[in-house]
Specification:
The protein has 13 helices and eight strands.
């Protein structure tokens, strides 16, 4: 087995915005600190949860720099996102490496719907362009194209490609790849973290971990020492919170709504075309939170939702999301 250079409890970090839709850098620094204190040993910036599709390139690179500075070696900093244009993806990852990233997570090119040969070429070229360890991000529900089993086996031979973030949920395929390669797997589905770990995954990259990484730390530590009972208990305790974050609206939207209600970020705003939860969606999130009870690293007694602050979306002052 290859050494794990990414960590095990990785937070798919939100990008805090102010009420005008600009990145709130002070809140970002504090949120990264909170995640690390609560047990995260990896921070994935500029991923799906970080609203990468509406971040500018300068914002993406500054997020890497800020996360690197805040972590001070306590957590690995992974840059996510990428591009559906291979040349632009290479440009971004080279710049992210210079900005201090410890690893890169390459999402399957979206919208273009490339063939498997196209995916193979894209991933290899990006991995060739950096000395950093690479996580492949397999999320066909968003990109429209899965990374097929045969393609993953071929990509596993690349010296820089060390892992897969799996949001496809095909556990039999995960088992086959783990049996035939040295690739590490990270659960990309908050509800399936324990099942992934049970068949050999190395860790998780979670949205709910923005709210609290502590229960995931408990699960990981329990699995590491072979204590399935403790892992199951933590998984069951965590389930209502996962449902609150992942069920009713996009995870980014729910996580920001909850974090703002807890007073941990200045605004729950997201960038258009995402919008905050409608009244009925916010009510469902709050109902789920009412079932959470006592959970390590989380005190919901001070939860004060502000549905008006969450309504609508925002446009950044700087137009454009790429170059």
């Amino acid at each position: 087995m290859k050494e794990n250079p990414f960590g095990q409890v990785l937070v798919a970090l939100i990008t805090p915005f102010d009420a005008q839709g600009e990145v709130d850098w002070a809140a970002t620094e504090q949120h990264i600190e909170d995640c690390i204190v609560r047990g995260a040993d990896g921070i994935v910036v500029t991923g799906t949860t970080g609203e990468t599709s509406t971040l500018t390139d300068p914002e993406k690179l500054k997020l890497v720099e800020v996360a690197k500075s805040v972590s001070s070696g306590r957590a690995k900093i992974i840059t996510g996102g990428g591009s559906n244009e291979t040349a632009h993806a290479i440009e971004l990852y080279k710049a992210s490496e210079k900005a201090g990233a410890d690893g890169v997570m390459i999402v399957t090119p979206y919208y273009n719907k490339p063939t498997q040969a196209g995916l193979l070429t894209h991933f290899r070229m990006v991995a060739d362009a950096t000395d950093l360890p690479v996580i492949l991000y397999d999320i066909p529900g968003r990109t429209g194209v899965p990374i097929r089993y045969e393609t993953i086996l071929r990509l596993a031979k690349h010296p820089n490609i060390l892992a897969v973030k799996d949001a496809k949920g095909d556990f039999s395929e995960v088992s086959r790849v783990l049996n035939q390669t040295d690739l590490m797997y990270f659960s990309g589905d908050d509800a399936n973290v324990l099942p992934h770990l049970a068949i050999g995954a190395s860790g998780l990259i979670g949205v709910t971990a923005n709210v609290t990484a502590s229960p995931y730390r408990v699960i990981i530590d329990a699995v590491n020492r072979g204590d399935l009972h403790a892992a199951q208990a933590a998984h069951q305790q965590l389930e209502p919170l996962v449902r609150a974050v992942m069920t009713h609206v996009p995870g980014t939207v729910a996580a920001k709504y909850i974090l703002h209600g807890l007073g941990r970020i200045s605004s729950p705003r997201v960038r258009l075309p995402l919008v905050g939860p409608e009244e009925w969606e916010a009510a469902l999130i709050e109902d789920e939170l009412g079932l959470v009870g006592e959970l390590a690293g989380l005190d919901l007694s001070n939860f004060r939702p502000d549905r008006n602050a969450a309504a609508g979306g925002a446009l950044p002052k700087v137009a454009g999301t790429t170059r």
